[in-house]
Every structure is written in C-alpha cells, then in structure tokens.
Design brief:
Structural class: alpha+beta
Radius of gyration: 18 Å
Shape: globular
Order of helices and strands: HEHEEHEHEEHHHEHHEEEEH
Number of helices: 10
Number of strands: 11
Amino acid sequence: MQSSLRFFKKTDGLKQLKLLAAVLLPLLFLSACSSNNIEENASLGTYFTQHGVQGSFALLDNGRGSFTMYHLKRYKDSAYQPAATFNIVNALIGLQIGTIANERMIIPWDGQTRKYANGDSATAWNKTLRFDEAFQAAATPYFQEIARRTGKEKMQYWLDSLQYGNHRIGSSIDSFWLNNTLTITADEQLGLVKRLYFGQLPFDKTWQILIKKLMLKGSNANYQLSYIDGEGIMPNQKSIGWVLGWVEENKHPYFFVLNIEGSSNTPLQNTGPQIVDDILTQLGFFKGKK
C-alpha cells in the first residue's frame, strides 16, 4: 500500500499567503502504512451483515503503528460526504477566526421544525442552542449558520490549507458538506482525528482541547471513548454513515474510523455507534487491559 501521506502542491493563481500556509501547515493524513503493519480481519464483516450495510473499518494502534482493517480498498480509495463529522473542522475554523466566540455562544432557533436524514424528528435541534450543545447534538442548522458567518472565502482558505478531502465548496456555503460536493476518504478521516488528539492541527490548542472534550462519549476506570458520527444521503439515494474517534486505555490511544452504506430506507443514526461498540468489544476493548 502506498503512503497515505499527501504532499501539498503549488497551484497557479493562489494567493501568496495561501501558498505559504499550504507548505507550512501540518498535514492531516497518516504516515505510511504497508502490508507489514496491516491486519485485515474478515470476521468484522459479521457486524456489517447483521445490520444490512456495507462499509469499512480501521483501527490504528498508535503505539505499535499497526492497523486492524476491514475492507482496505474502500477505506483507502473511496470518498464520501463527511456529513456531520465535518463539524470538527467547521467548529475549529469558527473558533479560530472568532465566528464562534466560545462554547457558550448561543444561536437562537429560527422556529423551523427539522428532521434528521432518516426522517425522524430532530427534537434536539428544534430549540435555541449553545455551541457545546449544538456540537454534541450534531445540530445541522447551528453549523449551517456558522458556515454562513464564516463565509466562502475564509472557509475555502482553510479547506485548501488543510487539504481536507477534495476541499470543494461549490455554490452552497451552508450545505457543501451535506450535498456530496465535499468528499473525504476514511483514511483522511482517521488522519484528522489522530492529529486532533495530539493537538497537531493548525488551530489554537485551546480549541482542539475543547473539541476533544465535546467528543467524549464514555469514561470510566477502564477506558475513555470519544467519537463523532454523521449520516447523509449519497447521489444514488443510499444512506452513508460515519463514526470516527479514539478509544483510550491505560493512557494509550487507538484511533478508529467506520464508514457504512445502506439502502435508501436504512436508518443509520444508531447503527454506526453500535457496530463500533461491537467491533471494539470483539477486539478486547473496554476492560482496561489494552
């Protein structure tokens, strides 16, 4: 397998500042992986089959630099809309440039009743929210307003600088991560959360620490589990879902990314986290013995 580390390329017409940032800012993606440090585990496919979905899963043991993988080709080569997982980047940009003042910043509800991608009522969105509440509820209307306030020029600057996915915005500043204009691979998603965990993204450490705190889903004496998930609709009307984050045991992080795809009537809101839980349990997590 070729290295997943990508190098920035100079592009005619970019502003000097953008070129400089593209050269100097840390890259998002993982260091090289080879057949020597990848274990493909076909048994993990059971959990996809149980839920009637296709997809890929990867777990990086950061200490050993080794991967446990299901469906390597999809993980490495296939790109999909990030859906609500883009809230990590949207939030960090907003916090960095001041579009988001702090974790308590309120955006009033506009009174419109909305639904999730699977058609269920988005009760958690249909009210006035603070930033921390909106992030944990993956409240699309809140982050659409953040994107509008950030503006296309600044958003494009950061996507280009980060080399995030195909870094395309298109004509809709408030939906490009939801309408299949912006796409990203699972490999790139894993690289993003790894750099976030270590505070290596080109944003103030304070904001990276805040996003890490808001991603925490479970914590006890044995482990800490942090992730973000998202669900959307692909151009072929199939459902697409993501779960990405890390599990930490004995102060040792393992980074993971799940990508799943289901038929147009397959709700994925709870499916992704359940598959991750099942896989991590099979791999021996949650006992504090890793």
